[in-house]
Design brief:
mainly alpha; 6 helices; 0% strand; elongated
């Protein structure tokens, strides 16, 4: 794990990734699944290298930051469906947030609302 982080600069290991003959992706998945039963020392050591316990949360935060940058630049959150920021399909992400609004956490809804997210387009 430490070698991967040193080389790649992050701890977001793809599920099927192998380091030589070691199935690092599967190992990472097991650590995430055992998070609540790992020893305090083990968790501390993983935390110290920036282990990603919830890759979906990290991804959402990154995408939310991209939306905030868009708003800062454009003055609104009405991202066109096909709009991309670099190679990230921000427009698609925004549509997905609207479509999933009933399943989003209260916190995420509040954070989107706080930056002027438009839930319904006319």
């Amino acid at each position: 794990m430490k070698e991967f982080k040193s080389r790649e600069g992050h701890c977001r290991v793809p599920r099927g990734h192998e380091e030589g003959s070691f199935r690092l992706g599967k190992w990472v998945s097991r650590q995430r699944n055992k998070k609540n039963t790992l020893s305090t020392d083990c968790r501390r050591r993983l935390d110290a290298i920036g282990f990603v316990w919830d890759p979906y949360e990290v991804e959402w935060e990154k995408n939310f930051a991209t939306l905030k940058q868009f708003k800062s630049r454009e003055g609104h959150c009405r991202v066109p469906r096909g709009h991309e920021e670099g190679n990230f399909k921000l427009g698609t992400w925004v549509v997905n947030q609207r479509n999933r609004r009933n399943n989003l956490s209260v916190e995420r809804k509040q954070r989107l609302k706080a930056i002027g997210f438009v839930w319904r387009l006319k």
